[in-house]
Amino acid sequence: MAIHVLIAPNAFKNSVTATEVAEALQKGLHQSGLHCNIECFPIADGGDGTGSLIMKKCHGELVNCVVNDPLGRPIEATIGLIDRGKTAVIEMADASGLRLLAPDELNPMQTSSLGTGQMMKLALDRGVNKIILAMGGSASVDGGCGILNALGVTFLDEEGNILLKPTPENLKRLANIDLRGLDPRIAVCEIVVLCDVDSQLLGKDGAAAIYGPQKGATEEMVQQLDSFLTNFAAITLKTCNININTLNYGGAAGGATSGVHAYLNARLVNGISYFLQLTEFDKSLQNASVVITGEGSIDSQTLQGKGPFGVAALAKQRGLPVIAVAGKVPLEDDEELRKYFDILLAIGNEPADMETAISNTYFNLVRIGTDIGHMLKLNSHV
Fold first, then answer.
1. Backbone angles phi, psi at 263, to 5 degrees
2. Is residue 274 a contact partner of residue 163, using CB atoms and an 8 Å limit?
3. Distance in angstroms (rounded) separating the CA atoms of residues 266 and 257
4. Per-residue pLDDT at 382 exceeds 70
5. DSSP 276
6. DSSP string of 91-129?
7. Residue 281 near residue 311, CB atoms below 8 Å
8. Which CA distances in Å does 151 have to 185, 186, 188, 264?
9. What whole-number distance in Å separates Cα of residue 130 and Cα of residue 213?
């Protein structure tokens, strides 16, 4: 009797997509000669690529639009519609993502989430009553001010002058936030934000310090960004009576999660849990004999709500064995990881620098998939 293998990996960041990971592992299993049925179910936890995977699983409609990129230039983006057009799926990276900028353009003092807000406004124009936002891969650290500005929020300095460009550089003099122009349709639209990292807004573990350098921030910029976000938080407390300093997921997407929660009443959720529920992952688990998952790195942080953990936790509820593959795994055995991952495999085939390892990711995944197939064949004879 053929075993049923469910392949449900996350993307390997800066290397291969979740779909490519699944395809490579499937190819390897086939090469092993294992007698099996295979289902590929690539996953995402709110990071770059989440929206497209939701659209594929939910058979949504894609709507093209033109919005502003992180530096304010016109760019083509795509809005997804599911639930018979009543729910929009918007990926922040499509309009406000790092991948839209050249390396020499990275500067979070000058970038904005405006384009994401424009996509939300266009979705409201289509008559949606729910918006699902995937916020991974953003290029901005603006607290979501660009999004808010696109939806009618006005930013003012001490003299009451309007601060026109919603970037941290231009909002250094922010003193007041005027909500009178906020699109009234927001009040009757459910907004759900899929978060892939749980971080605080401010301080040494905040949005500026942790994610600013990834978006091009120098040490000086990190201090300026944290100062801007601190001021934004104080004004938000005065304006909305909401303390975003202690908000779970408040530092994700350069603090944009904090802004949309406070001003748009957005609900911040664990990305992988929501994704797996929305795409009915549990139905696929019903047929599985073994589950294979993975992503670029698996360690203790994986257990804080990353994609492979979400998959493994559901698999373990059904008593299924879970094999995880990653570019990097802990050197020493980890008891907590072992509760969820029966086998944890690093895909590297030889010592290599990061660039070489990344370029070989797909081929190493095929090889490790072949090894997993041989291992499962051996197990069936024990």
1. -100, -20
2. no
3. 8
4. no
5. H
6. EHHHHHBGGGS-GGG--TTT---HHHHHHHHHHHHTT-S
7. yes
8. 10, 9, 14, 10
9. 33
CA distance linking residue 197 with residue 32, whole number of Å: 36
DSSP tag of 342: S
Question: Taking a C-beta distance cutoff of 8 angstroms, is the pair 298, 326 a contact?
Answer: yes
Q: State how far the Cα of 143 lies from the Cα of 191, in Å rounded to an integer.
A: 17
CA gap 31, 376 in Å, rounded: 13
Distance CA 43, CA 335 (A): 25
The structure's pTM equals 0.92
- Report how far residue 160's alpha carbon sits from residue 158's, in angstroms, rounded to the nearest whole number: 6
DSSP labels for 324-335? Answer: EEEEE--SS--H
β-bridge mates for residue 5, sequence order: 38, 290
Residues sharing a CB contact under 8 Å with residue 181, sequence separation 6 or more, in sequence order? 152, 153, 154
Written as one letter, the residue type at 52 is S
Distance CA(26)–CA(33), nearest Å, equals 11
- Set out the domains of the chain in order of their start, with CATH numbers: 3-41+282-381 (3.40.50.10350), 50-272 (3.90.1510.10)
CA dihedral 111, 166, 225, 237 (to 10 degrees): -140
Strand (E) or helix (H) holding 212: none
pLDDT digits (tens, 9 = 90+) for 39-61: 999 999 988 889 999 999 999 99
Q: Which residues pair with 158 in a beta bridge?
A: none
CA–CA separation, 271 and 268 (whole Å): 9
For 86-126, what is each residue's pLDDT tens digit?
Answer: 999 999 999 999 999 999 999 999 999 999 999 999 999 99
Average pLDDT over residues 296-304: 86
